[in-house]
Structures are given as structure tokens and as C-alpha cells.
Amino acid sequence: MNRILAMLLLITLLLSAAPLASAQTELSLWYHGAGNPEERAVLLNVIEDFNASQSDWSVVIEEFPQESYNSSIVAAALSGDLPDIIDVDAPVMPGWAWSGYMAPLNLSEGALDGFLPGAVGVYNGEVYAVGLWDAVVAIYARRSVLEANDIRIPTLEEPWTGEEFDAVLETLQATGDFENAFDVGMAWKGEWYTYAFSPFLQSFGGDMIDRETYLTAEGVFNGEAGLAFGEWWQSLFERGLVPGTSQDPADRDTGFLDGKYALQWNGNWAARAAVEAFGDDALFLPAPDFGSGSTIGAASWQFGISSTSEHPEGANAFIEFAIQDEYLVDFSNFGGLAPATASAAAMSDLYHEGGPLEVFFGLSQAQALVRPVTPGYANLSLSFEKAVTDIADGADIQDTLDAAVDEIEQDIEDNGGYGFGDM
Amino acid sequence: MLTAAEARKNAPLWVRLLLPKDAPLYQRNDALFGWLMAFPALLILTVFLVIPFLMAFVVSFTNQRLISPNPAEWMGLRNFERLLSVRAFTLEPERDDSGAIVYQDGGIVYPRLRNFTRKNPNYPELDGLREFTSWQSGDNRTVILVADVVFLRALINTLVFASVIAPLQGGLALLLALLLNQALPFINVFRAIYFAPVVVSMVVVSLLWRFIYDGNNGLLNNLLGILSFGSFQPVDWLGNPYTALPAIMAMSVWQAVGFHMVIWLAGLQTIPASLYEAASLDGAGGWQKFRFVTWPGLRNTAVLVLIVITIQAMGFFVQVDVMTRGGPLDATQSVVYQAVQRGYDKQDIAEGSAISVILFAIVFVISMTQRYLTRERR
What we know:
CATH architecture of the largest domain in chain A: 3-Layer(aba) Sandwich
Number of strands of chain B: 5
Distance between the termini of chain A: 73 Å
Largest sheet of chain A: 7 strands, mixed
Order of helices and strands of chain B: HHHHHEEEHEEHHHHHHHHHHH
Largest interface: A-B, 34 and 36 residues
CATH architecture of the largest domain in chain B: Orthogonal Bundle
Strand content of chain B: 5-15%
Distance between the termini of chain B: 39 Å
Shape of chain B: globular
Structural class of chain B: mainly alpha
Number of domains of chain A: 2
Number of helices of chain A: 16
Number of strands of chain A: 15
Strand order of the largest sheet of chain B: 1-5-4
Oligomer: heterodimer
CATH topology of the largest domain in chain A: D-Maltodextrin-Binding Protein, domain 2
Shape of chain A: globular
CATH class of the largest domain in chain A: Alpha Beta
Structural class of chain A: alpha/beta
Number of helices of chain B: 17
Radius of gyration of chain A: 24 Å
CATH superfamily of the largest domain in chain B: MetI-like
CATH topology of the largest domain in chain B: MetI-like fold
Largest sheet of chain B: 3 strands, antiparallel
């Protein structure tokens, strides 16, 4: 008995001593994707390759479920335990940079050439984070349905105009074949609302905030463009063209595939299911142009460096290693994500020329506009979400937009302008 | 009977060290022993309840943010003013050059309220206020302006929720308890069935009921359609401002009624059977037995059930978070939901704390009033 115990003790000692034997300095990396096996496997592979490729650094991953990731970072920052490498959702990055959680990247010249604009996280003129992929939103449609109703299939160069799009929805609704002509995804309450619907407002010529100063929203959100957007948005629900805010989440997930909805506003992550269900009949169409060009949201999860890291040069080395095309292709092939560079897209299974999701890469290059780059984004997004929800539910449009503007400006004032000037 | 020496011998070391040698443990040191026993619970309550609340109380007077490089400043009562300010304001009609009232589409035209409430130097007291409700008084319009429309809606919803839930859930639970307090075969099976929803997490229950309440093909709409032979028009239960809160109330009662049923049952079983026998001998009927034997015997249970339900109802949150997120049109906003949304999602921890402090004050007053009204009169 004692002998077995002694053996076990010896083995444990040997095992725990093993990492000490190598001269590599440990770098910690926090990752939000626990529970996403494909993405995780690719990241683990990148880390393994990096650790084997040089003898100075050894990256150690710690995983968190996405729901609690941001709060873990905030808690770690308050207690001074931030990891060296931070995984960050793009719109949150300015807040963390402003609060001093993150330091700018220091990559070699030209490392980010050819990256999609949405994949590079710039704040205050400096690059704080870089994404290995981007997410893209498109109108899901079926060629057979459009052709049967004599509807023009739009292209990147010539998307549907606002009026044309409205007529398309009316036509599809009038066929009686669908519960609703268009599913925008009201069941996905939360950040989806801002990510997916604010591009419509931008296409009308408005925005959530004045991006020149980032200090006011008056006239931008609640001006003529905002009002036009609000009227169109409300009419979608009044006319029954779109399922309302109480949409069943299951309908959101399968409604388009089941033929309940003729069109769907959805991201590239759902594209594989659509291709499997409809084959060549599946179409992914650009956002309509309501007058100021068609736009879609950009930027997904990215990697950055914490300001308290003792080894920023190691963290930079890891990020520079990870953004090689080879790994961008892996993330795309296994996770279905849009690769962050054109050269990686050309090598990927889904996004290469003629590939099933090729169109998404073009959409991202041509239409993507990042969400407002301000530390006040969290509040901005919630105010926008509340406004589009209330307008969809039938609230007075001007009053709702005015209230949203007041709320946004109050918050900016309370935070001393978020570093964009004195308030 | 244990002797003091034996008891000391069996007691753990730290007890032996703390107590005087020749003291009879169970006679002289009851109080000390009591504190020792309560110590772990008190410690946990202090660390996780009392200290956080005191911190929230302090933070509610500042402008502390969850994430910000700006230092927190003392703001006095600002947060409370922003939540609770109410003002009446009279809007005078728009007049043309001759001073006549301007009409349009058969109604009087008024200037836009926002001209007064947004950075108007002549009306500094109205700055940032919003319309809560308004009515016509002669040619003028009287407008009730509040600083925080959403919070006020949340407060009203929460009070309505609690005042409906407390009697409904308590009464229903008593009814179930009376039905199940009989010596029938398989009675424990029924008790288990009614208790089952309590064991299921509220998040899961809310998700399931979201499907039940679905506006198109939900279970409830289908059921009502079948029962009415197809004449029932489907209702979008959670999407309609008039049905959303009642729908959430019905679900909440269903979920929690089993818990209070068990408390009533426990109360019922403390009433001695001899009292019922005596009542029968005196010729009392079923209702008289309930009125004069059961109900007086349940007095303390009733006070407990009422207060517990009220406190739980004042804190309703999960249902809202999972099912409606406060919508449609603020019909289901709740105070705790707003506290979480502002303190956490909007990262304004000071305002979230202020809401918590207000809720604490309300619950405290309600509980004390209930205690007072249900006190034993001698």
C-alpha cells in the first residue's frame, strides 16, 4: 500500500515538474468559446503550433462560457488578474481600451494588409485587436420562390432599392404561401438587434450617434432619416410582413427552412443549414439600399493584449502567429466563419471562388460598417434595441427616437464624454 | 441526563477551551452556545447580504460605473431624483398671430413638449423629463412629466404584480392544501405532482411557457381553439401589451403555488383532530369547521405565506428576463429587471444600486404594514 502511494507521489511530482523543465515563459489566454467545439479545436491547434514553433513562449488557454466571459474580464481587471492575451467582442473593445484594460497591439509592419475592415479593431487611431474571421449578414432567399413571383434577383452592384424591397415583401406576402414574407429575427433579443437592424437605419442616412464627434445623437438618430427608418420599420409589423417581437425562438431557427418565411435576415453561421436544405436554390442577397447605400454590421470576436501583461512582446508574437492565412482557413473550414483576408478566403472550403458561401465574403468587403467605436457602445446598443423594439410594438416613432437620443446623451454626459471631449 | 463532565468530554476541543471548566454546559451557557451555533449562518449572511447591501446603499449616492477610468464622485440624491421626480405641466395651445387657437384635423395643436424639456433655459426644472400621461383641461393640456418613464412603469407593474399574486397564489395554495389534506389513497402522488413545478428552475419554466403562449401555434391558443370549436381567435399572449403581464402572472402562480401549498399543509397538520371532533359533536358543518377551527389555527401560517409571497413577488425578474425583456411597450418591466439592466447591462452600478435601495424601502414598509395588520390582538 505504502509503495503504491509512494509511486503515485513520484509520478505526480514528475508530471508537475515537466513544464518547469522547458525554458518557455507562460502566457495566459482567456477564451469565450467554451461550448463551441469546432472553433475551440482550431484555437487549441493554433496554440499547440505556436508553442512548438519557438522556445520563448508557451500560451496557456483558460476557457469561459460566452455568457459569463465579459463579466469575468471585468472582475479580473478589478482584482488585477487580467490574462496576457484577451479575447474580445469587437464593439466592447473601445470600452476596455478606454478603461485601461487593453494595450494597443504592436505587430510588424504590413501584418494586417489585406484584412477585412471589420476584422481590425481600431480605437483612437490605434489597433487594439484583430479578428481571425468576421461574421456577415445577408438576406436568405430561394431562387425558385423569387423567380416564380417575377422578382429581380439583386446583386452587389445593384441591390434592391427600398421601394423595390417593399414591393417584393408585399408580393411575397400576397402569395399566401408564407406566414410572413420576411423574418428579421425578433426572437433573438439582445445584441442581434443592434448588429442586424442598425444597418437599415444607416442605409436610410441616419445612425445611432454622430460619428464625427461621438458626443451627440440629436438629429442623427431622431432626424428625418431616423423618422423615415422608423416609419418603414413600424409598417413592416403593422402590415404583418414580419413576425413581431414575441416571435417563437424555434420559428427563428427553422422557419425559413420549413417554408414559413419567404426571406430571412440572417448571418453566415446559418448558411450551411440553408445550403444543405435547398442546395443551389439557396441565395444570399445583399442588404437593400434605402438611399444611402446598403450596409451590414461588421466585426466579431478578436484577440488583443491586456495592459497589465508582463510580456506584451510574447502576446504580440502569438497574435502575429495566429493571423496566418493557414489558421484563418482552419477557422473558416471548421467553424463556418468568413476568413478575415481575401487570400485565406480563396483557400477556404466555403468562401473560395465558386464556393457555396463565396457571396458572404464579397458582402463583407463591400458593405460592412463597424458598429460605433466608442466606450459608450454598451449603452448605445441598449438604447437602440429598446427603440426598435418599442417602434415594432407600435409606439409613437418620434417620441421613441427622442427618448432614445436623450438617454444616449445623458449617458455620454454622465461619463464625461467618454474621452471624446469635455462635456 | 448527561453530566457536565461527560458533556465536556464529548464536546469538540474549541468548545472545551471556550467554556469554564465546572460550568454545566446546558444551563449556564445557552446564550453563548446559541451564538456559536448561529455563527456560520451569521457570517455568511453578513458577508453576502449585509455588507453588499450597505455597499449598495453608499454607491447609490455616487456616480460609480462598472467599467470606467473616471473616479466615482459623491452625487447626493441625484440618482433618486432621476428615478422618482414627478411634475405637472400645463401646455397651452399654439396660437396664430391674432391669438386664436390653431386647429388641425379637428384637434387643438400644441407645441412639442420636447421644446420645453430639452435644454430650454426658461424651464430648467423640466430638463430631461418625459411625458407619462396627459389629459385635457379646457383648451390646455395637463401633462404629468416624470424623470424616468420606464422605471415608473416598472414600479407600477411590480406593485400590480404583487397585489394580484399575493391573494391569488396564497388562496389557490390553501385550496390545494385543503384538497390534499385528506386520507385518500395515493395522496402523496398528488402532492408530488403539484409540488413538481417548484423544483423546476424558473428559467426552464419560462422557456417552456414561451412556447405555450406562442401567438400562432402555441399550446394555449390551440387548446382554446379546440375547446371553442374553432371560434377562438388566437391571441399573441406575450406580444400584446394588455395580455403580457397577466400571462406572466398566471405562469408565476402555477410555478410557485406548490411551495406555499406545502406550507399550508404543514399548518393544517398542526391543528389537533380533537378540535374537529369537538366541532362535529357541537353540530358544526364543513364551512363552520373551516371558519372557526381551521382558519384560526392557520393564523401564523397565513402571516408567513402572505409575507413570503409578497416579498418574492416584489422581486420578480427571471420571467421577464427570459420571456419579454420588459416589453411589449414596457408592459412587463419590473423593478429588479431594471436594477439589473441598468446596474449591469448599462454598467451604471450607482443607478442600479439606487433602484435596489428603493425596492428595499418599499418591501420593508409593506412587510411591516402586513406584520402590523396581522398582529395578534389581545
